[in-house]
Amino acid sequence: MTETLQSSSATNIPAPPAPVPLLSARKVRKSFGGVQVLKGITLSVNAGEVMCLLGPSGSGKSTFLRCINHLERIDGGRISVDGELIGYAQRQNRIYEMNPREVARQRRGIGMVFQRFNLFPHMTALENVTVAPIGVKKLPKQQATQRGLDLLDRVGLVDLAQSYPTQLSGGQQQRVAIARSLAMDPKLLLFDEPTSALDPELVGDVLDVMRALAADGMTMIVVTHEIGFARGAADSVVFMDGGVVVESGPPASVLDNPQNERTKAFLNSVM
Ligand SMILES: Nc1ncnc2c1ncn2[C@@H]1O[C@H](COP(=O)(O)OP(=O)(O)OP(=O)(O)O)[C@@H](O)[C@H]1O
Ligand SMILES: [Mg+2]
Known about the structure:
Blueprint: H1 2-12, E1 21-32, E2 35-46, E3 50-54, H2 61-68, E4 76-81, E5 84-85, E6 88-91, E7 94-97, H3 100-108, E8 110-113, H4 125-135, H5 141-154, H6 170-182, E9 188-192, H7 200-215, E10 219-223, H8 227-233, E11 236-241, E12 244-249, H9 251-254, H10 261-270
Parallel strand pairs: 3-10, 3-11, 8-9, 9-10
Antiparallel strand pairs: 1-2, 1-4, 4-5, 6-7, 11-12
This protein binds adenosine-5'-triphosphate and magnesium ion (MG).
The site of magnesium ion has 3 residues, from helix 2.
């Protein structure tokens, strides 16, 4: 009896569900004034995973990130996040660009952290973190403040909640910027060289916060030259050059056993 049960349950166990891509980009093309900067980018990032995007200056990394939240309009291909087409709606086989309100709604689900921290200078760290939840999400102030303090605690800055950006180091400002992105509960976080404007001694604290987010299951795309971070935190690494994906795969293959000459040359220049 037990045996029968065991064997029947063994054969009935469904295969684990295939990972669902949270971000899917297909053949994304983008030109500026006749110069094609993205020449058909196809890649995907599964929910809960971290993808590091590497590539030389001018390869199109920032442009691609900006296309993900429709800060740039793509010329061809498609991008979807959590199953929803970005920037466009499909009706009866025709594609329409979304209106600004819809674009803004989509953008709220995608956090972006830039090289320069872009904090509001006239607001405290806490106010920077709570301004959008109060103003956009209409969260009651008390609730937003409590959540803001929790998020500042998460990035190790709760003691500096009342400080203004000029009173904070670059690394602290960047951690406030990360807390501010998290306050909108994004599905996806995009980082564009988040540590490259920082003094070397401040880089580690920011990377630690990013590693903790990754460990908590945040889906992240990180443009970075920090190969150590990519090796330790990324589930996948994509090397872009000249607007195309040259090589992609797990960090152990792309970083430690690259196949393409361009990838090898780039890694030699940054490692
Ligand atoms: N708004 C724009 N108008 C015209 N050209 C642009 C614009 N934005 C980007 N470009 C061009 O597109 C190309 C790719 O730029 P992008 O900023 O995406 O590169 P990147 O890989 O992020 O480089 P970096 O490592 O220097 O940040 C560059 O040649 C750049 O000059
Ligand atoms: Mg860039």
